Amino acid sequence: MINNNYKNLKDSYLFSDIAKRVASFTSANPDKKVIRMGIGDVTLPLCTSVVNAMKSACDEMSNAATFKGYGPEQGYDFLRNAIVDYYKEQDNVELAADEVFISDGAKSDIGNITDLFSDDVNILIPDPVYPVYVDSNIMLNRNIILADANEENGFLPMPDQSVKADIVYLCSPNNPTGAVYTKEQLKIWVDYAKTNNMIILFDAAYESFIVDKDLPRSIFEIEGAKECAIEFCSFSKTAGFTGTRCGYTVVPKSLVVEGMNLNKMWLRRQTTKFNGVPYIVQKGAYAVFTSEGQKEIRANIDTYRENAKIMAETLTAKGFKFTGGINSPYLWFKCPNNMGSWEFFDFLLNNAAVVGTPGAGFGKNGEGWFRLTAFGSKENTIEAMDRLSKLTL
Q1: Same domain? 22 vs 90
Q2: pTM of the model
Q3: Which of 252, 272, 291 is the endpoint of a domain?
Q4: Which residues, at least 6 apart from 278, have a Cβ–Cβ distance to it below 8 Å?
Q5: How far apart are CA 231 and CA 218, in angstroms?
Q6: Does 72 sit behind a cis peptide bond, omega within 30 degrees of 0 on the bond before it?
Q7: Residue 267 has pLDDT above 80, yes or no
Q8: Same domain? 128 vs 202
């Protein structure tokens, strides 16, 4: 009766262990201000345009003439069309509205997309990695092949022609490493996937942090990607929807596997297992794409980018090797003096009262590395980096 594959999952020890160590430290040092730079949660509030749109939607819901009950499981047309326009404007990518599916966040769809595939597929996943990629496949007892993301390849693994898989997960800008694939690198992945009849599951949750115009924000900027890729995106980091929950997944209608159209399959899955994102939330998400909304969220993103710049300058001055920090809100750096990830976590907490995330929590290749996020306040970021700069390493 029980899915015994859950026995193969590691306990979710990473952030619980972090919480325990921080609690112990604060209990022993109640006078010290702890600055948390570990969890990738935003701190700036929803922008005015989004809040006003949600308030207006609440008013609609209070009036019988404008009340909305069940909405379309795949999302309201007004939001889907706004996303289509965004892709055209930002990435010069042509999409149809019925290729866009509104969700309650990229994490949900990344975990649920596995419903479309059989349990005996081979899964290629980079290491270190966002844990949901691995765990959602362990739950189905799938064969997982790890691709080495390491210092030598800039934490951007490329296809190994000797490795054959059915599905590959790619995340760019990457969580946790902050590394970003170039168009040339993604073209190699797309060609590899098409040659080997693979599906690329492309996590673009951090696309809005890319400032280098030569770097792709969407895999669909790459020729041939619509025949082999599904893309996931989110309003969480772009517009502060971590607590509001809204994202979207793009499943091209040209994506066909063994005679089955994945767009139609995903539509069938969603209309069966999902009741859609609340109208009020979708109205707020729609406001993100208005001219005023874009101006406001970009101001918030610029704040986080400035934080990342401050952090990158400090790490550079201290001689740390790192990736990210320019086109990503994450900075991934090598622990000094050959320290282990948890060893450096304790060192940083006890000597600077700064909390980060041990790289070992993201896979074996994360051992000896450390992640900091730029999602804190500017004031706390400056203070944390001042403390770090004064450490004797």
Answers
A1: no
A2: 0.96
A3: 291
A4: 71
A5: 8
A6: no
A7: yes
A8: yes
Segment 281-310, tens digit of pLDDT: 999 999 999 999 999 999 999 999 999 999
| DSSP assigned state of 218 | S
Q: Which of 259, 291, 323 is the last residue of a domain?
A: 291
Shared domain for 148 and 275, answered yes or no, is: yes
Whole-angstrom Cα distance, residue 237 to residue 308? 14
128 and 36 belong to one structural domain: no
Amino acid symbol at 231:
E
| 219 and 315 part of one domain | no
Strand bridging mode 260-261 / 122-127: unpaired
Place of tokens 């996020």: 373
| The one-letter amino acid at 17 | D
Closest CA to 236 of 46, 3, 64: 46
* DSSP classification of residue 69: -
User: In the chain, where does DSSP find H-type helix?
Assistant: 13-28, 48-61, 77-91, 106-112, 131-138, 183-195, 236-239, 262-273, 279-288, 291-317, 341-352, 378-389
How many CB atoms are located within 10 Å of the residue 29 CB? 13
Residues 352 and 384 in one domain: yes
Spatial contact of 251 and 266, defined as CB atoms under 8 Å apart: yes
Q: pLDDT (tens digit, 9 = 90+) per residue, 59-104?
A: 999 999 999 999 999 999 999 999 999 999 998 999 999 999 999 9
| Residue 257 CB neighbours (<10 A) | 15
Domain that holds residue 203: 49-291
Query: Do 244 and 380 sit in the same domain of this protein?
Result: no
CATH number at residue 85: 3.40.640.10
Task: Please tell me the total count of domains within the chain.
Answer: 2
pLDDT, one tens digit per residue, over 142-189 is 999 999 999 999 999 999 999 999 999 999 999 999 999 999 999 999
Place of tokens 């594959």: 5
